[in-house]
Amino acid sequence: MAQCQFQTEVSELLHLIIHSLYSNREIFLREIVSNASDALDKLKYLTVAKDEYKSLVFEPRIDINFSEEAKTITISDNGIGMNDSDLAQSLGTIARSGTKAFLKELGNEAKKNNNLIGQFGVGFYSAFMVAKKIEVTSRKALEERAWKWTSDGKEYYEIEEAKRETHGTTVQLYLNDEGAEFASRWRIENIIKQYSNHVAFAIFLTFNEKEWDDKGNVKGNVIKTERINDGTAIWRKPKNELKEEDYIEFYKQTGHDSEAPLLHIHTRAEGQLEYNTLFYIPKKAPFDMFNADYKSGVKLYVKRVFITDDDKELLPVYLRFVRGIIDSEDLPLNVSREILQQNKILVNIKNASVKKLLSEFKSLSESSKEKYEEFISQYNRPLKEGLYSDWGNTEILTELIRFKSSKVEGRTSFSDYVSRMGSEQKHIYYISGGDEKTLKASPLLEAYRAKDIEVLVMDEEIDEIVIPRLGQYKKVTGVDKDGKETYKEWEIKSVGRAGADEEIGETVNKDAETEARPVIESIKTALGDKVKDVRLSRRLRDSPSCIVADENDPSMQMLNMLKAMGQTENLPEFKPILEINGEHPVVKSLAGVTDSSKIEDTAQVLLCQALLVEGLKLSDPADFVHRLNRLLS
Ligand code: ADP
Q1: Which of 136, 218, 220, 423 has the most C-beta neighbours closer than 10 Å?
Q2: pLDDT band, residue 106 (cuts 50/70/90)
Q3: Which candidate, 269, 286, 82, places its Cα nearest to that of 164?
């Protein structure tokens, strides 16, 4: 018998689970039952898809036994089973990606927030909340030998050869004092009904029932086995037969989340294509949403048979936060992965599902501002990714995304923005490339503020990529007499461009320009090729200077982002246009100055402060400090 040590993360996880999920400990049964159900799904699939499994005849089922006296519960399935190396791999390590980083977060958050654990789906290990020892006896389908994994959930586990009549897995829990209460018919039945009622396979419970004679005395005991779950795949039931609780329960049982979902979207398609989909939007974004190797949340079934939960093509990447099920009537059962990717039926289901999801999001935004705010606080960013990758749905995605604003609290939509616009205003304005605080303090906003023009504050990195590509916002205004939709369009313009001030009617008077020219020229000479140009500003009120990008140049923030993404070749060097406020005392003080070192110091300080206030890094901070001190003294 080999004694092995758990991977360190497992030990940590065990410790955390036992201490933070305690008030919820009955979920251990849900977790073990859904593992059994997955194992049955897998084997059922293989018996239709793979020749070598086709001869296996089996009636998939899950059996639960218990003993009040011995304080044990046994859950057994006749699914795919595990051999010795599967046992070591599945129950001795945490194989799932992203786990390590997540564990760290879990450590800090777990005490405050049990949901994190729910989201992660701790699975099997949760049984150690109620058990002092667990034995897992398993035999893998098509293999002769069986194996037993044993552990007390502390540091070690053991694996030894064992006996099992048929393929499948038996999990035997030796309950601890706190877990003893679960060795009861009523507890088990209630937990299964609450959590696992929709599991597609029959779950049987075996129990003792007392027999009574005519006089009301106990005659003896009979052992009975009864099916305790309902077993209909909920997504196949008509909507009117389902209650809100049914949807929530099913989600919790399958979605690795202990919190109710924000939204469920249940669709039955009949006609050319027949399928059922049941999608859920989690309240909190899945923890791996921004990991490149995120886990897909959508399972594919064909005629109720589970096919895969690991196909990221079922929905577009940007909708990776969606959980749920697609069940098709038309796909062949033995459809292979490679074929799946190009399968026309699946592509059609996917496109229709995307349209359905987006239109449900839109309805939510119209029906409940509060709920939509909750939704967008989690999923604004992936939806913006959609604008980049899903051109076919640009219009609706543009309506769904939200931005902060110079004028209103919270987030706003393009649609609300244009409805607040004054009649004079022609375009939609935005400022981007920094955090909210920096952007709101930018000198670029001074003229807009003075003219009471709202500016969208785009403080997410992705805005920088998506918004320039979008270019304009199109709003449906009604339908014409032929029934065609009519639109109004607005250009979406950055305030950080050279010509932006002119658009809002800012002008420079000729006298001021003539007066400032010598100062502008001397600053330009002093800065040399550090800038593309130096101009007298029309947009500044309180600040002495600001930088803008030339009409078709990329912004510095954009270039920095491309660099951060590893794109270094062929990147143009950023050359800003420096705008000078001719009315500012610092600038005025330069009039008539001939001392070239003072002019140079001031010019450099004007440029550096304009960069700093936009949240950008200076290439030579020491030089800036040096010049500043010289001017101050
Ligand atoms: P998860 O189910 O989230 O992957 P678990 O800790 O519950 O995590 O289970 C780990 C792995 O152990 C499963 O992914 C599966 O491969 C294996 N496993 C657990 N229970 C069974 C079972 N009854 N039959 C076959 N494999 C199982």
Answers
A1: 136
A2: low
A3: 82
76 Rama sector, left if φ>0, alpha if ψ -120 to 50, beta otherwise: beta
CB atoms within 10 A of CB 154: 12
In 442-484, the DSSP E strands lie at: 456-458, 472-479
What one-character-per-residue DSSP string does 112-124 give?
T-THHHHHH--GG
- pLDDT tens sequence across 68-104: 999 999 999 999 999 999 998 888 765 443 445 555 5
Domain 2-227: CATH superfamily, name plus number: Histidine kinase-like ATPase, C-terminal domain (3.30.565.10)
Per the CB < 8 A criterion, the answer to whether 410 and 372 are in contact is no
Cα(149) to ligand 1 centroid in Å equals 13
Task: Please name every residue paired with 150 in a beta bridge, in sequence order, or none if there are none.
Answer: 135, 158
Domains 403-501 and 510-632 share a fold: no
The domain 510-632 having CATH identifier 3.30.565.10: the answer here is no
Residue among 9, 35, 84, 253 whose CB has most ligand 1 atoms within 8 A, to mutate: 35
**Distance of alpha carbon 77 from alpha carbon 71, whole angstroms:** 20
Round the average pLDDT of the chain to a whole number and report it: 88
- CATH class in words for 234-367: alpha beta
Look at residues 412, 398, 413 and name the one whose alpha carbon lies nearest to residue 473.
398
* H-helix or E-strand spanning residue 214: none
Comparing 116-130, 180-194, 237-251, 437-451, the range with the smallest average pLDDT is 116-130
* Residue range 391-400, pLDDT digits in tens: 999 999 999 9
What percent of the chain lies above the pLDDT cut of 90?
Answer: 55
pLDDT class for 20, splitting at 50, 70, 90? Answer: low
Contact predicate 404/434, CB 8 Å: no
pLDDT band, residue 181 (cuts 50/70/90)? very high
Name the residue of 75, 124, 295 to mutate for ligand 1: max ligand atoms within 8 A of Cβ: 124
- Please state the domain extents for the chain: 2-227, 234-367, 403-501, 510-632
Which residues are registered as beta bridge partners of 251?
none
Report the pLDDT value the prediction gives residue 335, as an integer from 0 to 100.
Answer: 65
Q: Report the CATH fold assignment for 403-501.
A: Rossmann fold (3.40.50)
Ligand 1 pocket, Cβ-based, cut-off 6 angstroms: 31, 35-36, 39, 77, 79-82, 90-91, 121, 123-125, 169
Q: What atom of ligand 1 comes closest to residue 31's alpha carbon? A: 7
Predicted TM-score (pTM) of this structure: 0.72
Q: What residue's CA is closest to ligand 1, atom 16?
A: 90
Structure token digits, residue 167: 């393929």
Give the type of residue at 248. I
Compute the distance between CA of residue 541 and CA of residue 578 in angstroms, rounded to an integer.
15
